[in-house]
Amino acid sequence: MIRDNAMSNVPAQARTSSPPSTSGRMILLLLIAVGIGAFFYFDLGRFLSLDALKANRDHLLAFAEMNAGVAAVLFVATYVVVTGLSLPGAVILTLAGGFLFGSLFGTLLVNIGATTGATLAFLAARYLLRDWVEQKFGSKLGAIQEGFANNAFSYLMTLRLIPLFPFFLVNMVSGLTRVSVGTYVAATALGIIPGSFVYAYAGRQLGTINSLKEIASPNVLLAFTLLGLLAMVPVLYKKVAAKRA
Description:
- The protein is an all-alpha fold.
- The protein is built from 14 helices and no strands.
- Helix 7 runs antiparallel to helix 8 (103-150), helix 7 (90-101) packs across helix 12 (193-203) and helix 8 packs across helix 11.
- The radius of gyration is 21 Å and the shape is globular.
């Protein structure tokens, strides 16, 4: 009874989470638009190409060897910005990570930068769009939302492992679901390890790479696809067990 009385004295606004303010959304949209606009206006994408990486590899390697800590921080920060704003160039950055820091340490730095940037994009999509999507299509998406929430980790692992699904698209679409942030971060951090390692390892042979297609060979893509399907085994098991029960 005491607890009920205490709760009754709490304003209704305090007991329910307030929706994101319009001004907050506008500020965030403006920041994202400025970042993306600056990237394309100043043609920064020219630095995130295979040709640019190969042309500047000696300078980059010399800087990384002389300033290892600073180079690692700058690399992770750049990766966060690129993935957080859904800009092109993450593959080139992964190659650069392997070339500059080695396959294993480069994969670790890529994982930190990519997971952090993907989480920021996920949170931005959730903050900006999820309420609108649920109000507009809530009745139609209820079953999908529930199914995704119950098997979020397996679904996300599959989406991360199979290269058919663009990285930035998975970030934004996931933000519109009810998956928890912790599950999203864990599935993203684990799911991108194989692909990150493949490209970071390829970065060690940067001089011999003439096209990104040489890295993503059919055998590599098939291996990723099989790993992605393997991640769906728990979901299939649940369905089979439920039918038997």
